[in-house]
Amino acid sequence: MTDFDDLTALQYPTAGEGRDAWVTWLHEHCQAKLDQARAVVLELKTSPPGGPDALGVLHRWNEVTIALSGAFSASSGIANIHPDPTVQSVAEAAEQEAQKVDTDLSLDGELYQVFARLDPAGLDAEATRLLQHTLRDFRRAGVDRDEATRTRLREISERLTALTQEFARNIREDVRSIRVPAASLAGLPQDYVESHPADEQGLVTITTDYPDSIPFRTFAHDAAARRELTLASANRAWPANDAILREILQLRGEQARLLGYPSWPDYDTEVKMIGSGAAVAEFVDRIAEVAAAPGQRDLQVLVDRKRRDDPDATYIDASDATYYAEAVRREQYDVDAQQVRRYFDFPKVRDGLLAVTGRLFGLEYQPVDVPTWHPDVTSYDVVADDQRIGRIHLDLHPREGKYKHAAQFDLARGVVGRQLPEGALICNFSRGLMEHDEVVTLFHEFGHLVHHVLGGRQRWIRFSGVATEWDFVEAPSQMLEEWAWDPEVLRSFASDTAGEPIPVALVERMRAGRDFGEGLQARRQMSYAAISYWLHQSPQEDLTEQVRALEQRYSLYRPMDGTHMHASFGHLDGYTSGYYTYMWSLVIAKDLFSAFDPADLFDPTVAGRYRDRILAQGGRRDAAELVRDFLGRPYSFDAFGAWLTGADRR
Q1: pTM, whole model, 2 decimals?
Q2: Which of 40, 123, 308, 315 could form a disulfide with 558 if both were Cys (CB 3.0 to 4.6 A apart)?
C-alpha cells in the first residue's frame, strides 16, 4: 500500500447541514491552515535548524506552503462553485486573508535571510530546484526593495486580490437573456425546442449560459435573434468590469515597475517558457502570419455561403461565425451537428471519458458517496495498481451563481505521506445530448484534472500537480482532445438511442470538417492573445476602442459594434497578459501527439512513457526538459505548422 491509501480526503459538511455548517467549515479549515503557516514561519525565524541545514529549512518551508496551499485551494474553489452566495462571500474573504498572509511572508526580509544564508551543497536536484525557486519567488515579490516600496507592493497585492474577485464575480453573476418569438427557434434541435416553451406572450427566453447560447448561435436561422444573443453575451459584466479592469491593469503595471521590470508582460514572462514580453508579441504575429492564407481562404467560403441568404453580404462577424461554419460543414462535408449530437448522451459521454482515460493512463475511477457542495456533483477515488492516488469531483451542469466556463479547480495538492491530490472539474454542459465540441471540451478539461492527480505524488508541494510553466499547462489537455476525435475511441461510448455506435465514416467526415476553419480560429485566438498582451503592455484609457482595434488587426471576423468583450474576458484574471499560452501550448501538444501511433492510441509503451515522463513529473523539471525526455529531442514548430497549413493532410 502507498502512503496515499491511509490518507483522508477533505471532509465537507453533509448535504443536510446547510449554510452555517459551510461557513463554520471554511472558517475553521482556512484559519487552521493559516495559523499553522504562521507558527512554522516563527520557528524558522527564531530557531532555524542548526548550522547550514538547508534540507531541514526546506522541509519546514514545505510545511508552510502545504498549509497556505490548503487555505488558498479551499477558499478559491468554494468561492466559484458553492451555490450559496453567503458561503461564496465567506470563501472570498478567506481567500483575501490567505493572500495577505502569503504577501506578508513573501516580503519578510528576516524570513528571506533564512534561505539566502543556506548552503545548497549536498542537496539533491529537486531540493536544489526548490531552493532556487523559493529565492526567486522572494525576489519577484520585492523582498529586497526598500521599506516604502515593500509597503506599496503589499497594498497592491491586497487590492488586486479584491479587484480580481470582484471582476470574476461580476462575470459569474451577470447572466443575460433575450426574449424571442417561438418561431425564432427554427433550425434548433427538437429537444432544445421542447425545453424552451413559449410564455403567455408567445415569447421564449434564451440566456447567455452555454447550454442555451451555444446551440442557439449554432443552429437558429433567425439572424437578428442570433445577433441579439451574441451582443448580450459580449456585454456581460459591462459596464461594471470596465473600471475594475482599468484599475487592475494600472496596478499590475505599477507592481512590475516597482520590481524593476519595464512592464507587466516582462515580469509575467520571466518564469514562462517564452522568456520575455517582446517574445509574446513576436509569437502572436508569427502565428497570425502562418494562419493568414488558410484563414482568408476559409473566410471566403463562409462569406460565399452567407450570400445565399443575404446577397449583399460582405463580412462575417461573431453572430454569423458559428452558424455559417456549421452550415458549411453540413453542406460541404456532410456533417450535420444535429445528427452528430444524437450519439453524445451526457451520461454515456461521462462514463466513456472515464473509461478512455482509465485505459490510457492505467487508472480506475471508483465512485464514492461523500458530501460535496451540490447534489449534481459525482465523486470518484482514483486508483492505480490497486492503490488510491487521488480524488476527483465532477460538477458538470450549470446553475445560478456558478463559475460560467469550464475549468479544473485544485481542492488539495498532493504531497507524499501527507495529503491526497483532490480536484474538481467545473463545467456547464447540458444534461441531455451534447454537441461534439462540448465532448472535446470535456476531454480537454479532464486532462487538467488527471494531470493534477498524476502529478500529485511529490515530496515538495511547490512541484505538485499542474506546477509547470504556465505556457505549458494547456499542452497535455490539448493533446488529450485528439482521443475525442478518434473513430474507434468514440465508438466505445458514442451511440444513439438504439445502441448503434457512431459510424466510422461520420467521424472521418467530422475530422475533415474540423480542419475547415482552423486558420480562422487561429487568427481569432491571436486576437485574444493580442488583447491580453497589449492591454497589459500599454493600456489605453478607452479599453473598448483598444480591443476593437486589436480585433480588426488580428481576427478575420468583423468586430461587432456596441460590444465590450473585455468586461467578460475572464482569462484577463488568471492568465493576465498570457493568453498566448493556449496557442503556444498547442504547438507543443501537436508535437507531443506525433509520438503516438494514430492506429493505436492506447499503445501502453508510449502512453506509459507519456504518463511517467510528462504528467507524473509535476513541476520537478522545466517543461522543455520534460518534452525532450519524452520525445527524445527538443520540441519543434513543424507538426503544428503542417497541421495549420494543411500540409499534413496533403
Answers
A1: 0.91
A2: 315
